[in-house]
Hints:
Number of helices: 6
Oligomer: single chain
Amino acid sequence: MNPILKNVLAVLAGLIGGGLVNMGLVTLGHTLVPVPEGVDLSTMESMKATMHLFETKHYIFPFLAHALGTLVGAYLAARIAATRKMTLAMVIAVVTMVGGVIAVTQLAAPAWFNALDLIVAYLPMGWLGGKLAIGKK
Length: 137
């Protein structure tokens, strides 16, 4: 297979795989830690209006979803890639971090969560995913 095509497919696989992990953990989180009474997760406006009702426990699964989604996506991209494995793992990390930055600007989550999420869940997890994939030959 052409290495460029393989690298493009690797990034797509990483984005899809990481996205599935992210959404799976978010869904699981809402099952295990139900959102507060009166919170409607269907629109950003309703979430923004009710963020003050969230407790620390409500931020555990979103953080895990962001971190593990990025980790798995970066791992998949690096594992599948023909060349530039770490670069493609970090592409996944940057793309997911852009989503995290957008979420931070749109939702009124606590500053501690925003900082933890943006500092730990994206670039470090992308790097770790890449390292884990590259380490396996």
